[in-house]
Amino acid sequence: MIFLRRQLPLLITLVTGLLFAAQYYVPHPASEQMLTSATKWLQIVGGFALILGVTSLFHQHAVKIRRQEAGWGYSLVLYVGMLGTIAVGLWTNGKESVEGTMTAFGWIYNYMMVPLQGTMFAILAFFIASAAYRSFRAKSREAAVLLVAAVIVMMGRVPLGEYLIPLSGDVSSWILNVLNSSVRRAILIGVSLGAVALSFKIIFGVERSYLGGGKE
Amino acid sequence: MPFEMIVGAWVATGLTLLIFSFLYKDNPLFKLAEHLYVGVSVGYVIVKTYDTVIVHLVVKPIVENGEIALLIPVAIGMLMLTRYVPKAAWMSRYAFAFIVGMGAGLAIPRTVSSFILKQVEDTIRPLLSMTGSDGVTFSMNLLNPASHLNAIIILIGVSSVLFYFFFSIEHSGVGKAVARTGILFLMISFGAGFGYTVMARMSLLIGRLTDLIEFSDTSYGRPTVWLSLLTVGALFLLARRGREQPPDIH
Fold first, then answer.
1. What is the CA radius of gyration of chain B?
2. Angle between helices A29-66 and B28-49 (to 10 degrees)
3. Helices A29-66 and B71-80 sit at what angle, rounded to 10 degrees?
4. What distance in Å separates residue B209's CA from the closest CA in chain A?
5. Which of A142, B1, B98, B112 is at a distance of 20 to 30 A from A54, taking alpha carbons?
6. Does any CB of chain B come closer than 8 Å to the CB of residue A98?
7. For B89, which DSSP code?
8. pLDDT surpassing 80 at residue B133
9. What is the mean pLDDT of residues A184-196?
10. Domain residue ranges of chain A, discontinuous segments joined by +
11. A173 touches B147 (CB < 8 A)
């Protein structure tokens, strides 16, 4: 039984890992076909992973409503929003528009989701500004550099900034295209090295946390 | 103006104002909009996933093209759901093993190629172009990201930042100077990233305010004006009710 519960999953990881790592180096149509199918398969299995997440959300809020815990009315609103959107979406076959005409699902997207999402992220502008006020005081040389770079980039992104400081646009572009890209490149190399190391650890069974705990 | 657009303007304005009410303080109106946002977003993702995965990737290919092999990923996906049956939960490991193994296998060569070798190549190659058949050339134009001066700056940035995160060597002497250069590059990048994010959020804010201004038009029935008054009134009543009820100290 321990073979089925612990060793077989590790064997599946090893075989699939080696197979798909090797696929990259085989320039044959069959290899390409395998990659296309595998990508499709991943999408399908990923769809089922969504069920896990959504069920957890369903359960959490259902418990809150059943026990009438504090704020259970909000959970009800969440349920109504979710079930309403699902019902309308299924009714319109998941299409936002049909032959240029907006469907009910499109209406929900345009007049509910977009304003809610846009405003939710827009209010972050205020909180980022207040956080910046607290943390951007130039207490050290590094903090001063960060502050100056942020101010230049902000000035360089708006016409008023360029009007007040004509060079800010060019300097902002230089910071973003040269200095920022060099750092991004270094971080990308570092993260990628880590990702490759982790992938090897997973394939060879050194890293097993993804299998979860529980009985052997 | 179509009726659904007028109703849409009222709903969009109302939801926008409910979210903006958080700028005053955390309040029930904001929480209502927040939960509605989560609900609608999850519902939207469910519908889109159902349409993309179940309908277009599973049902249609099987029914129309007879691609029976697609039942294998469906079976693997179903194994994931055994998590809800304690006695059979271990079977979900097969699904996770498959996904994680495939992901790791796909990631290794692609990451090495695109994110390591390609990045190193792009850092080094511009410097090689300095020497050609007509001798050594060196372009100093800072505004051209492809100039040789910028190529050297990028090389210094990449090397120093990588060195800063390399802890196998003690950062002392020359190493300390290189690491400090790396910190400076990092700080500039963080500052630039912050400034860029702030302006992106500002852009969203301008978009929402533009909508509110547009919806204050009489053709929509001035939802911005009426709903602003309603929101402020509701917040006032909530604040008054909050003052009348002393906080529970237990």
1. 29
2. 140
3. 30
4. 9
5. B98
6. no
7. G
8. no
9. 96
10. 30-91, 92-122, 124-200
11. no
